[in-house]
Amino acid sequence: xxxxxxxxxxxxxxxxxxxxxxxxxxxxxxxxxxxxxxxxxxxxxxxxxxxxxxxxxxxxxxxxxxxxxxxxxxxxxxxxxxxxxxxxxxxxxxxxxxxxxxxxxxxxxxxxxxxxxxxxxxxxxxxxxxxxxxxxxxxxxxxxxxxxxxxxxxxxxxxxxxxxxxxxxxxxxxxxxxxxxxxxxxxxxxxxxxxxxxxxxxxxxxxxxxxxxxxxxxxxxxxxxxxxxxxxxxxxxxxxxxxxxxxxxxxxxxxxxxxxxxxxxxxxxxxxxxxxx
Length: 277
Description:
Blueprint: E1 11-16, H1 24-35, E2 40-45, H2 53-63, E3 71-76, E4 87-92, E5 95-100, H3 106-111, E6 114-119, H4 135-148, E7 159-160, E8 175-176, E9 182-189, E10 195-200, H5 201-207, E11 214-218, E12 221-224, E13 238-242, E14 247-252, H6 257-261, E15 268-273
Parallel strand pairs: 1-2, 1-3, 3-5
Antiparallel strand pairs: 4-5, 4-6, 6-7, 8-9, 9-10, 9-15, 10-14, 11-12, 11-15, 13-14
């Protein structure tokens, strides 16, 4: 009809630790295309560090909200492939998630409203024979394609209680410590060496009236105030900034903060009011 909208193209996102050297990603996409030719596949990343479930959980939480409503998000960072670990599909108000039940959905489950969850057990939907080492090809890809093309998740297997899903411990939420500092931790380091903390803009605004009048302590360094862009600091100088994930980041202009500070995921970050104000 003239003036009517075209039907939305189904979308699948892929997040894996497969890298780009081997054929694994291409094979998964080929299987998806054979079951749902009209689907659009968008890569979140295939450079998750091998078996790094925590890193994958952060990437998924950071990215999924930018996808079209009702996208199917597939995560294959699966150290337990071939074992008795479960494969699950979780339906939220924003889309469907197909993943191993190893905690990789933890941050998504914290943020999203869960409608229901199902075990992926209906072997009629898999490729056969099912490899014990490549469930991405034989289970995740055909299941995701069928979901993207309209299959109901109820067809996958029995419904399970969302509270039964495995959750990872990412440490305490940001809190005010006995020294009056907002204490947080590094939860992600990107390829540029930027250290992303779990301290969000909302935490900063809640505890500090003037963000230009704070000090950020990372490792043995103290950074005065927040920058508005990386170029606010001279080349090679440390800076603190609320970055694109809306979280406090520790960075070095045109250098790696992770290398300069010798810091990694799990290390503490502190924010306090400057004493000269």
